[in-house]
Every structure is written in C-alpha cells, then in structure tokens.
C-alpha cells in the first residue's frame, strides 16, 4: 500500500492511498470518526479508477496522521479477532 501525504498541518492531513477502494476507505473513515478529537474525516474517489483522497481534521489536540495510523491498527485488530473466531468455529 503506497500512501502519499499531500498536505500535513497541526490539525489537518490530506493524503492518497494507492489502490484502495470504497470498502477500505469506508471502514477507515468510520474508525477515524470514533476519535472525539476528530472534526472531519472523509474521502473522495474523483474518478472510477483513481486513488482515494482522505481528509482528516482535528481540534488540534492530536496529530491527524497519528489518528489515521491508530484507525488502521484498530481495523487490523478487528480482522485479527474475526480470524481467531473463525478458527475456533472449525
């Protein structure tokens, strides 16, 4: 996964995530919005085959790039939990 940071400020990050689509981006935005310090989290896929652009703004208390990283880790944790549950179901 190739991530390109387009803009980074104290309370705002704008980046593209190469090769991802609506499935991952919807999950990521939902996780990011769980953080009470996040004001805006949204993404845009301008054209059908273009890379999504993610925008996250905060109230300035947390680094927006760290919030994105933590959201990705939580998604990964949910997937790990699901895999463990599936192994137990065998």
Describe the structure.
The protein is an alpha+beta fold and 90 residues long. It has one domain (3-89): RNA polymerase, RBP11-like subunit (Gyrase A, domain 2, 2-Layer Sandwich). Helices cover 42% and strands 29% of the residues. It is built from two helices and four strands; from the N terminus they run ββαββα. It has helices spanning 22-33, 64-89, and strands at 3-9, 12-17, 38-44, 53-58. A four-stranded antiparallel β-sheet has the order 1-2-4-3, with helices on one face. A hairpin with a 2-residue loop joins β1 (3-9) and β2. α1 crosses α2. The longest helix has 26 residues, at 64-89. The relative contact order is 0.19. The model has no long low-confidence stretch (mean pLDDT 94).
